[in-house]
Amino acid sequence: MIKFLIKGLIRDKSRSRIPLIVVSLGVMLTVLLHAYLKGFMGDTIETNARFSTGHVKVMTKAYSENSDQKPNDLALLNASAIRDQLGKQFPQLDWAERIEFGGLIDVPDSNGETRSQGPAFGIGLDLLTQGTRESERLNLVKSLVRGNMPKKQGEILISDEFAKKLRINPGDRITFIGSTMNNSMTIYNLTLSGTISFGNEILDRGAIITDLQDARNALDMQDATSEILGFFRDGFYNNKSALSIAATFSSTYKSNNDDFAPVMLTLSQQGSMGQYVKMSDYWANYIALVFIIAMSLVLWNAGLLGGLRRYGEFGVRLAMGEEKGHVFRTLIYESILIGIAGSVAGTLAGLFFAWLIQKYGIDISGMMKGSTLMMPSVIRAQITPSDYYLGFIPGLVSTVVGTMLSGTGIYRRQTARLFRELEA
Amino acid sequence: MDNSPIIEIEKLVKKFPMGRGEFTALNGIDLRFKQGEFAGLIGPSGSGKTTLLNIIGSLDVPSSGTAVVMGRTIENLTARESAKLRKESLGFIFQSYNLLAVHTVYENVEFPLLLLNYTASERKKMVSDALEWVGLTEKIKSKPPQLSGGECQRVAIARAMVKRPSLVLADEPTANLDTANSHNILKTMETLNRELKTTFLFATHDDKVISYLRRKIFLLDGKVDKEEITSN
Q: Given phi > 0 = left and psi -120 to 50 = alpha, else beta, which region is A355?
């Protein structure tokens, strides 16, 4: 009997291949959309993480309490030792030191007199060490408008808008005027190597980017750093893991009441990011849920139509003495088989395409011209564990429920009407 | 011919709800059929022939009266017992063949045997015999869409006969066939009736079918109007 049913299933395209294709496509779209939404929503979080918060951030206790003011007098000391320790303790993260600072950019004329001047917000990061990922992380190369990336110490990047305001071009000398971490005045000469567009109003107004060592030299912060940012190596923020890592790290310094003791905060523990993480999770899941329901209705309907189309066959089988329960069960077994096969195929296909979008991304830089949002120019999907099973909701459950509904017709069917029904 | 009654119907009434009232399809039928009969219920549409065939085939139950088919009282059977009776002892032939289109001739004929849990070798032998009876051994691997109407009805006959049922119920079996094919089909059924002693009961108003029947029961407005028995 099983052989007979399988033969029928394989030979009848509208009973096997077409439902299989419909289920696979539905599941594939569900998985792909969910991964894409996760990635898209996560990208905004990632942009903030890359520029400011990291996935986790290590600071001194005092710095974290006044972090809005970027108080470098409260910076972490023995930064390299702390970073080495973090690298050993949490190898799943990539660690990067950052120095954030404020000051004045002064552009001298040929006589050394001030030609133009403007307030600047600076980020010192590792641009020159072999294998550093900081430039890639901030997408600096692609953001270059004029000139080149810094190739040696003493070279600096300035936002293109700021550079235009200061009337400077790549190759021009500028002077940074600010205060060191010890609160004494500092004057530091730099050369403009290139200008960049951040695509963000605040950064474009007056941001400068220097190599970490230049920032240290300018601010007298040898082996000190404002923050050490940690990034998950797969590039995606994982709130649960981040909280666990932060808790482990902080437990080491729990009894240390020193204001300069390091503390670790996760992205969700910084500013309003926690709310945004929750909101993005909520929206990604909500949109995915709407899509799952829509796909469920489609597949439910497909199961329903599949059952109704075979009314004649069921009638013959009932007339020949097959019990209603047996006909119903075989119908359900078939839909389970189709549901599982379609869900597996659809999930694999969905994961494959999601992986492609995760790895290579979709370049939307053409659409980003003139945008004032801090958004990445390449949108990537993010495969999460739920992508491995959520396709089975529309794929298996809806198909089987649809089939069960259509199958209830078998029970309601009056066998007395079989002769009439079976007459074409 | 065996004299034991295969079907006993007494004072059988069948009513169907219609609007607020009832429609009486069968009104006090008394009939008996013996093993090996080649009989037909004849009458115009609405005369009650298909309703009576349904009750005999355990597809429906009487409103009152009794129908005993092969010793089993139809009105007392559960759904499972009805299915068992159909599965083991009854064969059905439909007007529009109702073959399973994706299955071969062999598989269509084999299907009733699968329900009866015969072994593969038993099934093979029985299917071969049934296809031989209807002259379709050459078409064993064909599928219904590749067959003519006459061939499809022969497959349907083989499917009804393969389990050697005691009773075959045929509802307008020649309605979709031309004259030549109708005669071929009827001759085949007549031969099977004589050789295997299977009882055939038709519901028809087709003159070609009527000409082959040895017992003709004319129904009119749910009652037996008259009966004719021919000895040929």
A: alpha
